[in-house]
Structure formats: structure tokens, C-alpha cells
Amino acid sequence: MSSQQRHIDVAGLIIALLLLALAGVVWWDMTKLQLLSPYDVGPKAMPVIVSIGLTVLAIGNGIGALRGNLPDRERLDWKPIILILGGLACLITLIAVGGGFMIGTAILFAATSTAFGRRAFLVDLLIGAVIAVFIYLLFAKLLTLSLPAGPLENLL
Amino acid sequence: MEAFVSLASGLSVAIQPMNLLFALIGVLLGTAVGVLPGIGPALTVALLLPITFKLDPAGSIIMFAGIYYGGMYGGSTTAILINTPGESASMATALEGNLMAKAGRGGPALATSAIGSFVAGTFATFGLALLAPYLVDLAVRFGPEDYFALMCVAFVTVSATFGDSPVRGLTSLFIGLALGLVGIDILSGQSRLSFGVPELYDNIEVTTLAVGLFAVGEALYVASRRHVHEEKLEAVRGSLWMTKEDWKRSWKPWLRGTFYGFPIGALPAGGAEIPTFLSYATEKKLTKHPEDFGKGAIEGVAGPEAANNASAAGTLVPLLTLGLPTSATAAMMLAGFQQYGLNPGPLLFAEKPDLVWGLIASLFIANAMLLVLNLPLVGLWVRLLAIPQPWLYAGILVFATMGTIAANPSPVELIMLTVFGVLGFLMRRFDFPIAPVVVGLILGPVAESQLRRALSISLGDPMVLLQSPISATLLAIALIALVLPFVMKGLGRFKAVED
């Protein structure tokens, strides 16, 4: 890339600002800690190091963004991202309200599969449900791990 | 020879039927999952960690070692047949390997990579067994300040020295270090960065972070650029076997690759990229068939593959003797040890010699199993590659979420998984390396406690870090490794050899 084509990278600047915000949160959290023992540098030392480091790196990333040093990126397709995150959100909500994991898992499976271009949502919902039953039996019966149960899981 | 006695007793542990079974399950799972495009050994171990924590520790760790080696084999199969290496360490293999597959010589390419991996793995595991006792002797003399300095070296080399951009590498590392602060500080009992959320008091699970970054992040990334990137699977045509000529052209690259891979892997520098590309460049220079390079030269597969496996075994040297992970996979292995309350390092060699030497001995067994199983089963692995992409990623996400809530049955854990997934997606998109985040999370709290121990022994005098000769030397190395990439642009340009 020649120097004339370089322009300020807005996404890079946002990354720098986010890093700065993270540094600020780490610092703010540190100020609430108390030093208890005089013989220990205490719980504050590491957050201070991390916060300063993040600040320096935020500046470094900011300079990189101003120079347009970030790697080239392709156009982003938002639809699949929203589908997958939506599937995860369904699963989390269902588990939070006590609906068990199976329905949520089936939805996540079908949503992800749709995100990758399949056009058979109902079939995939069914496949996802079968996989969920299989995993439930494997985890709960063979490995003695407990998964959050809802009305459906209690039938098994 | 102390090492051989220990190794023999380790072998008696490793050949117990249950442990052999664990090793077999490990290599099969490792290869199967490693073959799947986009899944490396680090994610394989991370996915399986939460569901194995009720199993026997020795058996599980032997299984993880099998997964580790199996994942390498699987990764190179994918690199050769689809040219989308799941991890950067297989990139050099993919260069010539995929060309060989396109030219109808996929069989010999797979064979030389399997046999080369076996040769390299065997030599490197011997190296590990011979080197470990010396390093353990050295490590017992380390004080907390020396450990802290050693971790500084690892932090810098993993993130800054050899990456594409030291700033982006260090940014990843510090994100990991910040995540490592979350939870209750053991020494003072105060909670940090927990914001009153009870699930955050017990620290961030390394597995949740790794699965989020690698599995969810990868799924989001691949889905978002499906329109630009199509994968093409090369069929394995013709004979699987190597001709006499192939053998003649392969054996020297295998040995040279091992020679590059093991020492570089064993140094706390991390990453198998450097030895694989060094090996590739060397073979390109030394070959008697320069006309084949660019059309599928067998030397260009044999060397890098050997280097890759040798460096994987080399990475176990600092991991087992010093408790120092220098790659994402090693970090997951460390998490595996910690899950059973075991801390790799000199103490573990003293307290649980059976376990450590049993693990090392089972590496030989895993390696031999892979050689015997892999070539006959190559048809099965190729069929795994043919799983339709939508189901593959849907299945990965389902397994990832189930494993996460099985370990910590709480929606908050799943929210964290999703957040780390988005983080992993953004890091891929903006080309931030991922391994430093994982290493930072797992090693940050350890480094902090060593620093605080050192400073409480010295009554708060920071000069203790410079008064110990070991620590002073290591800190100087860390400083040089930090400054060097800024001064000499291009240490990370080993990738340029592909042009």
C-alpha cells in the first residue's frame, strides 16, 4: 500500500478507545481495593501494571489507526452473525427462565446452520434436538455431569 | 542414566490397560477433531476439559497428550487436502502439501507427513525425557523472583517478538492479563473486577475463554466471510505409499525438521511457525529438485511436518518442568493439570513421578499408535472432512455451549462464552493474535503471586528482581525480546519465505 492511499482507520480508533476504557475500568476498580498487609505489595500492584500497559497500548493502537496500519478487511456479512448470536441468546434466555437446555440447543443448532447457508430450518431443528438428547445422555448418564433441566429433560 | 530409569518406570504406568485405552481414545479424538477444518488442538483440549473433570487425573492427562499429538496429525491432513490449515503451524505444510494433493500425489504427501511426524515426535520425546531432569534440577533453585522474570520472558516472546505486530500481540496479552485479574484475590480476600456478580468471584474459567475465542469466534468469523471464501477438498487419488524415491527425498528433511523444531519449541518462545517456515526455507534451498517447489515437492511437506511435531513435543519441556505454557495448546494442557489440582513444575516431578513419567512414556505410545492407525484410517478422516459446513459449525457450537454449562451450570457462564466469542471474532477480523490472551489469563495470576511472594520476602524492595543473577538475566532477555521487534522490523516476516 502506498502512503497516499493510507487513511485514518475509524475502526482502529474505536479499538484504541475501547482499550483506554478498559484501562480506566481496571484503574477505577483498583482504587476500591484496600492494602491490608504492610509486607505485601498487595492486590493493587498488578491492576496498576495492567492499567498502565493497556493505556500505552491504546496509544500505540491509536497511532497505528491514524497511520492506517491496520490489515485490510473484507466486506462484512452481518446476517449470519446476528443469526448465531440470536441462537445463543435464545439458549441463554431459555436456561435462565428454567426452560431446560434442549429446546435452546435445537434452536442454536438450526440458527447456526442457517447462518452457514442451509435452508431447512425445521429439519435442522429436529437434528439439533436429537443431538441435544444424545449429548444429554452422554453427559448425564456416562460422565455424571448435570445439565440445566427443564420440562423436556425431566421426561428422559 | 536417571532419565532412562524414570522413563522405564513411566512406561510401566503407560502400558496399564486403562491408560492405553485413554491414550487410544485421545489419539482418535484428537485426530478426528483435528481433521475438522478450523479446529486446532487447543480448542480440542478446551472442548473436552470440562467434560472430563470427573475422570481419573492420570488417565485424563494421558488422554490430553494423545489429543495433543493426534490434533497435529489431523491438522496436517486438513492442510494437505483442503489447504485451510486450522492453525498457523500447518501453514508451511499446506504450501507444498496441497499442491501435491492437486497433482494426484495426496497419498505420499499424507504418508511423508505421518512418518515424518512419527520420526520427529519420537526423537523430540526422547529429547524431552533427557532434558527434563536437568531443567528440573535447575528449576528447584529458582526463587519467586526468578519465576516472575521467566514468566516475563514468556509473556514477551509469546506476544511481541515473533508476531506480525508487536503492538497487537501485546494488546492481546494485556487483555488476557486484565481478564486474569477478575475474581477474588487469594492473598487479600478482596474481589477485583467482579462488579458484584457472584459468578465472577471464582475467576474466569480458562476453558470458557478458550472455547469462546476459538469455537464461537471462529464460527462467527467463518460465517461472516462465507461469501468470499470457498473451500475445496482434494480427493486422495492413487497409491498411499511412498516410492523409494520419496523415501530418499524425505528422510533428511525429517531429521532437519526435528532439529529445528525441538530446540525452538523447547525455548520459552512458543509457536511452531518459525521452525516450520525455517524448515521450509531450508528444504527449498537444499533440494536437488528445485523445479518441484511450487508444484508439490515432497521435501516441502516432510521437513515442516517434522518441525511442527518436534516443536509440539518441545513445548512440553517448559510446560512440564517449569509450568510455563508457551502456546495456546500448552496453556490448555496446563488448565487440564490445574483442573485436577496439579501444578506442573519441579515439584510435580518430585511428588508425582509416576504421573509425569507415565505421561512422557505415553507420548511414545501415542506417537506409535498414530503411525499405525492414521494411514489405514485416512479414508475415515477424509470422510470427516466432507461433513457439510453448516452442520459442522452448528455441532461445534452445540458441543461448546453444552460443555460450558456442564462445567458451570449458570446462564452467566454462557453470557461470558458469547462475549468471548464476539471478542474472538473481532480479534480475527482485526488480526490480533489469540494465543496471548489465553496465556495471559492462565499465567497472569501465577506471575502476580510470584511477584508478590518475591516482594514480601524482600520486604517490598523491588531491587530483589535485579539482585538475583538468574532473574536479572531473564529480565534483560525479556527487555531485549521486547525492544528487538520495534528496532528490527521484520522478525515476524518469516512468512515472507512463501513468496
Which structural class fits the helix and strand makeup of chain A? Answer: mainly alpha
Oligomer: heterodimer
Count of runs of 4 or more consecutive helical residues of chain B? 22
Q: Tally of extended strands of chain B?
A: 2
Domain DUF1468 (chain A): 14-148
Pfam families (chain A): TctB
Organism (chain A): Microvirga makkahensis
Protein name (chain A): Tripartite tricarboxylate transporter TctB family protein
What's a quick, concise take on this entry?
With 156 residues, chain A is mainly alpha-helical.
Give the topology, please.
The complex is a heterodimer of chains A (156) and B (499).
Chain A: H1 10-31, H2 45-66, H3 78-96, H4 102-115, H5 121-142
Helix pairs in contact in A: 1-2, 3-4, 4-5
Chain B: H1 2-14, H2 17-35, H3 41-48, H4 57-82, H5 91-102, H6 106-139, H7 144-161, H8 166-181, E1 183-184, E2 191-192, H9 198-201, H10 206-224, H11 244-266, H12 273-286, H13 299-322, H14 328-339, H15 346-351, H16 353-374, H17 378-385, H18 389-407, H19 411-429, H20 435-457, H21 464-467, H22 469-487
Antiparallel strand pairs in B: 1-2
Helix pairs in contact in B: 1-6, 1-16, 2-4, 2-16, 3-4, 3-10, 3-14, 4-5, 4-6, 4-13, 4-14, 4-16, 5-6, 5-13, 6-11, 6-13, 6-16, 7-8, 7-20, 7-22, 8-20, 10-18, 10-19, 11-12, 11-13, 12-13, 14-20
Would you mind describing this structure in some detail?
- Chain A has helices at residues 10-31, 45-66, 78-96, 102-115, 121-142.
- By secondary structure, chain A is mainly alpha-helical.
- Chain A has two domains: 10-66; 78-155, no CATH class.
- Chain A starts with 9 loop residues before the first helix and ends in a 14-residue tail after the last helix.
- Chain B has 499 residues and is mainly alpha-helical.
- Mean pLDDT of chain B is 85; it is low at 491-499.
- The N and C termini of chain B lie far apart (47 Å).
- Chain B has one domain (2-498).
- In chain B, helix 6 (106-139) runs parallel beside helix 13.
- The chains are: A mainly alpha (156), B mainly alpha (499).
- At the A-B interface, helix 1, helix 2, helix 3, helix 4 and helix 5 of A face helix 8, helix 10, helix 18, helix 19 and helix 20 of B.
- Chain B: This is Tripartite tricarboxylate transporter permease.
- Chain B: It comes from Microvirga makkahensis.
- Chain B: The chain crosses the membrane at residues 20-49, 61-82, 109-135, 147-163, 169-187, 316-335, 355-378, 390-408, 414-443, 464-488.
